Amino acid sequence: MSPEELALAKKWVETWNTTGPILEKIRREELRKLDTFKTISHLCGPIDFTQEPFRPKPTSGLVEQQKWFMKARNMDSFLQAAIDEAKKGLAAGGIPIGSVLVCDGKIIGRGHNQRVQHGSVIHHAEMNCLENAGRLKASVYEKCTLYSTLSPCPMCSGAALLYKIPRIIVGENQTFQGPEEYVRSQGVKVEILQNPDCIKLMRDFIAARPELWNEDIGV
Ligand SMILES: [Zn+2]
User: Fold this and answer.
1) What is the pLDDT of residues 22-62, one digit of tens each?
2) Could you give the angle at the alpha carbon of 142 between the alpha carbons of 140 and 144, nearest 5°?
3) Is 172 one of the catalytic residues?
4) Confidence tier at 2 by pLDDT (50, 70, 90)
5) Ligand 1 geometric centre to CA of 163 (Å)
6) What CA–CA distance (Å, rounded) separates 122 from 48?
7) Which one of 29, 64, 126, 215 is the catalytic residue?
């Protein structure tokens, strides 16, 4: 065995010694107590969050499966942060749509629809989120994923295209559908999750306040 191979083997043993207990915890469904981003980085190295998580085949190794599972779970936690924003907006008498901007596995901006609260015609959830994230360089936007509880309208989709955000994850598009196909045609990955919480938030709101909703989408 060459010194390089020996060093590599040693590294693997060390990695497994450290990650073994972590994997065991995951199996016991104690994921909530872990800092998932740190754990993923530890297991897999830096992750490019602009790429789709690799869905492993049933025959894939444990690490591949764990990688996918944890990354998928992290995606859930980002959507959950957007849902929390939507609920914050609803509690303040606004339209329940929320959004977060994620870069390198971290939330760098949050926002929700402020149309009612601020009498604003432009602060849709995604616009509010981008505004709250502040001025960013193109090199940051190109690594970002924009999460929204609802399919982005033409204005918000336009902002995402302007800043060349490469990936948009959408909670649902059953109650409203923005120009998703156009956005995809511009090279942006758009993923629709049809999340039941997002659908319920909007269905309940539209039933309760149809006039406010129509105003929001220019109907
Ligand atoms: Zn919008």
Assistant:
1) 776 666 655 556 565 566 666 655 555 555 555 556 566 66
2) 75
3) no
4) confident
5) 15
6) 31
7) 126
